[in-house]
Amino acid sequence: MAPTLSNDILLKAAEAYATPLYVYDEERIRFQYAKLVQAFQQSDVRIFYACKALSNINILRIFQEMGAGIDCVSLNEVQFALRAGFEPGKIIFTPNSVSFEDYKEAVGLGVNINIDNLEILQQFGAAYGSAYPVVVRINPHILAGGNIKISTGHIDSKFGISIDQVTEIIAIKKQTGLTIKGLHLHTGSEIKEVEVFINGLNLLLELSEHFDELTVIDLGGGFKVPYKPDEKGANIEQLGEKLFERLYQFQQTNNRQFQIWFEPGKFLVSEAGYFLTKANIIKENPTRNFVGVDSGFNHLIRPMFYDAYHIIENISNENGRLKTYNVVGNICETDTFAWDRSLPEVHPGDVLMFKNAGAYGFEMSSRFNSRARPAEVLVSKGEIRLIRKRETLDDLIQGQIL
Ligand code: LLP
Question: Does the beta carbon of 50 lie inside 6 Å of ligand 1?
Answer without folding.
Answer: yes
